[in-house]
Input
Amino acid sequence: MLQIDCPWCGMREEMEFSYGGQAHVAYPKDPHAVSDEDWAQYLFMRDNPKGLFLERWVHSQGCRRWFNVERHTVTHEITAVYKPGEPPPAAKP
Output
């Protein structure tokens, strides 16, 4: 079982959280002008890397806040946790 370090509540077991998909997926600026194909691309197509991946999680059994996690998809090792609006670990100076 994963141990996830909620930025607000601290370390908790994975069962307290819900996965929210890939992090940093930009919402279309004008969704009404997007073609059906582009809208489907936005809704359903996500990266699926073997290695480090930026994800969104929500502490559904705790503070109910969203945050981002950098997790290795093979080993499940969590290498970073950061709040929404903060830059991803690779982008930090």
Q: What stands out?
A: The domain at 3-91 is CATH 3.30.2270.10 (Folate-binding fold).
